[in-house]
Design a protein that fits this description.
The complex is a heterodimer of chains A (288) and B (281). Chain A is an alpha/beta fold and 288 residues long. Chain A is built from nine helices and 13 strands. Helices cover 28% and strands 28% of the residues of chain A. Chain A is globular and about 70 Å long. With 281 residues, chain B is mostly helical. Chain B has 13 helices and no strands. The chains are: A alpha/beta (288), B mainly alpha (281).
Chain lengths: 288, 281
């Protein structure tokens, strides 16, 4: 079966120095993958190549067997980083979601009944249909993330691409977003997302692509999140812990931890607040 | 009543008012897209570029609308392409391309001093020279822009909201930008005679930002901005007649006054909403 994402010997650069070198990447229908790597690794550039916003200097990018410049362009649902959205733009949730249907909508400025109905079905699926007529600024981070996910789904995409969907939202919202993506993947949606949250990727995403200008490794999180691979990708001293069948990734502090340097975080102590050290870590007890 | 109807005895006033209302509405309409794209400076820059084109048209004995139109359109395209293909930001590209074009106009004026007076009108606006043919051209451009914006509503809305993402969703954003450049150039050319090069930017921006203060809805913003532009065009023309000031200046001053009122109302509304919130907390 032909892969949905097909990058063959792709090299890309903004100036002389290449940002991405000889990338070969295949992602098949129904896969859910996370693109991880340090800042400057080329994650966003790779995403933009897949989205067709950038063109490779060398190599070829095909989505569902089609190049971006082909007559029948591939259908991609894209959820940008929340911080890139102009939240003061005067649009409602419904208007944003209907933007996703632009490719197949008619010439009239207003949406057809079927477009509107489809948008509301998706909003209901994501449990935000009651917010349809709200301004996008007046929503919580999780709701805002779901609005842009709804816009992507309304496009009925072959592929769903998300740029750091868990950045800028609290842990619970991030967890909810990843659960929603997991549900969509179970329904057959192919998903590629970038993230800096390695622990969330380890817990929720079945396939990880570790990038630093080239693909360092790809596979299930258990195979990719090893000290050797992460050290190479992040050029740092990484720590990988396994507990209760889960993987936890952490960068080791440079030679010392904060606690060894500053055993008492408040000089002189806080009245009614005793500080004790247990196993090298401070334990605080509040006396009432 | 006579007081209100008296100016309409004069053909120049009838033509000028009709043109001012149409231009006011037109600038108000496309001003929404300009303000939301964060390109408020483009109206100012392009009108200067078109001034250069107008002078060149005069020197070369070309038709004003065609010569200045092509000049303005090319300048707008150059700005778009410079921003798309280089590291230069929009404001810098506008600054370089439009100022260079304006400088060509100034250089030609200083070389051929004989037509300095007619270009005073182009700089500051003058209704006396608005003929019926000019009104027809303004009406034609208004109709064309209205039809294009109506049928490209979805594409323009998405491209204005987020151009990069719109491209991913299948919108030919380069074509949308080219179309918008054409619309903008056409609008500026027909506005020059009434508003003057130096004041067009305000007519593009002020109704749109006033509307933005009054609503959070894109459709209502378009409606309010267009109506404000048209109404202030009408009031401005009256003021211009009775106070005997340049038409462009009086229209922009009326718009600025309404903006001031809207700003005050919006600030008061915001303050009372905050006070209400504190009371409930």
């Amino acid at each position: 079966m032909r892969p949905i994402i097909e990058l063959t010997h792709v090299t890309f650069s903004y100036s002389a120095a290449p940002v991405l070198e000889d990338i070969n990447l295949h992602l098949h229908a129904g896969q859910f993958a996370a693109l991880v790597g340090p800042s400057g690794a080329g994650k966003t550039s790779l995403l933009k190549l897949i989205l067709g916003i950038l063109s490779p200097r060398v190599g070829e990018v095909r989505i569902n067997g089609q190049a971006h410049n082909s007559k029948q362009a591939p259908r991609i649902g894209y959820v940008p980083q929340l911080e890139t959205v102009d939240w003061n733009f005067p649009v409602t949730v419904e208007q944003v979601v209907l933007m996703g249907a632009v490719r197949r909508s008619g010439i009239w400025p207003w949406p057809s009944n079927s477009e509107r109905q489809h948008a509301h079905t998706v909003l209901k699926q994501l449990e935000i249909d009651h917010l349809a007529h709200h301004h996008i600024r007046n929503l919580s981070g999780g709701q805002q993330q779901r609005v842009f996910l709804a816009r992507a789904l309304v496009a009925e995409p072959d592929l769903l691409v998300l740029d750091e969907p868990t950045t800028g939202v609290d842990m619970r919202t991030a967890e909810n977003v990843l659960h929603t993506l997991g549900d969509l993947n179970l329904q057959g949606m192919t998903i590629l997302m970038t993230t800096h949250d390695l622990n969330a990727a380890a817990a929720h995403v079945p396939w990880v692509i570790c990038l630093n200008r080239h693909i360092v490794a790809q596979g299930p999180p258990e195979d990719v999140f090893t000290v050797e691979i992460l050290n190479e990708a992040y050029k740092a001293d990484m720590l990988v812990l396994r507990q209760d069948g889960m993987l936890f990734v952490q960068q080791k502090p440079h030679g010392h931890s904060y606690h060894t340097l500053v055993p008492n975080p408040v000089p002189g102590g806080i009245p009614g607040h005793s500080m004790e050290k247990t196993d090298g870590l401070p334990a605080s007890t509040v006396s009432v | 009543m006579d007081f209100l109807l008296q100016p309409f005895q004069f053909e120049f006033f009838r033509n000028g008012t009709l043109a001012a209302v149409l231009i006011g509405g037109l600038c108000g309409l496309i001003g929404v897209y300009i303000v939301l794209r964060g390109m408020s400076y483009i109206g100012h820059g392009l009108s200067h570029a078109i001034f250069g084109g107008a002078v060149v048209s005069f020197v070369m004995a070309w038709n004003f609308y065609i010569g200045a139109g092509i000049w303005g359109f090319v300048a707008a395209l150059l700005i778009n392409q410079t921003v798309r293909r280089t590291k230069i930001s929009a404001d810098a590209a506008i600054g370089v391309i439009t100022t260079a074009s304006f400088a060509i106009g100034i250089a030609l004026i200083s070389r051929y001093r004989r037509f300095t007076r007619s270009f005073d009108a182009a700089l500051f606006g003058n209704v006396l020279g608005v003929s019926q043919q000019d009104v027809l051209v303004v009406a034609g451009v208004t109709l064309m822009v209205g039809v294009l914006l109506f049928f490209c509503y979805k594409q323009l809305l998405f491209t204005t909201f987020d151009s990069n993402v719109a491209q991913v969703y299948g919108i030919q954003t380069e074509w949308v930008d080219t179309l918008f450049a054409l619309i903008l150039a056409a609008t500026l050319i027909v506005s020059m005679q009434i508003l003057g090069v130096t004041l067009i930017a305000a007519a593009l921006v002020v109704p749109a930002i006033t509307a933005r203060l009054l609503t959070d809805s894109f459709n209502r913003m378009i409606l309010i901005s267009t109506l404000l532009g048209a109404v202030t065009g009408f009031i401005g023309m009256y003021l211009s007649y009775y106070v005997d000031v340049a038409s462009g200046a009086s229209i922009v001053l009326v718009q600025a006054t309404i903006f001031g009122i809207a700003l005050t109302v919006s600030s008061l509304r915001h303050r009372s909403a905050q006070r209400l919130l504190h009371t409930h907390i």
